[in-house]
Design goal:
5 helices, 7 strands, about 160 residues, seven-stranded mixed β-sheet, Acyl_CoA_acyltransferase, about 35% strand, N-acetyltrans/Recomb-assoc, alpha+beta
Length: about 160
């Protein structure tokens, strides 16, 4: 398993990974209508290439299969962070997260923050993030609970 930066040819796999993971993993914490609003049937592949290119997007590459990805913005915001439905609980998220934290240190970022889903909250707690607040957000007419979480990085 290699952790590397996003390449444009990864975009379709990342879009499918996002869609399938939300539909098959997050369904345990959200309703069917919520996951359909979150990951609609009409995936916009071109948007993924653009968005991933504008951030520090790290992917876990398992010999050509994208097993997970996470995005760091210059503000310290972790935007998307997903592990493939077939690669859950294998330490891949931790590897991606550590690459993100290393990059944050390089950039002088002292605070990371994320809006974590109910599903992702335990992972980020394990990575020593603290819950700032529970939020209700709306997407395509559905209301979701997520958690604003943050972690302050020690100089290093």
């Amino acid at each position: 398993m290699k952790i590397r930066l996003f390449q444009k040819q990864d975009a379709n796999q990342i879009a499918l990974l996002f869609h399938e993971t939300v539909r098959e993993i997050n369904i345990h914490d959200y309703s069917s209508n919520q996951v359909k609003a979150w990951a609609p049937d009409n995936i916009q592949f071109k948007n993924w290439a653009k968005d991933c290119s504008e951030r520090f997007t790290y992917v876990a590459d398992d010999e050509g299969v994208i097993a997970g990805f996470g995005e760091l913005e210059l503000s310290g915001h972790i935007n998307c962070f997903y592990c493939h439905k077939d690669y859950q609980r294998m330490g891949i998220g931790s590897k991606i997260y550590h690459a993100i934290e290393t990059k944050a240190h390089e950039l002088g970022i002292t605070r990371l923050y994320v809006e974590a889903s109910i599903t992702a909250k335990p992972f980020f707690l394990h990575m020593e993030f603290k819950i700032i607040s529970e939020q209700q957000v709306e997407r395509r007419g559905e209301t979701f609970i997520n958690y604003l979480m943050e972690k302050f990085l020690l100089p290093g």
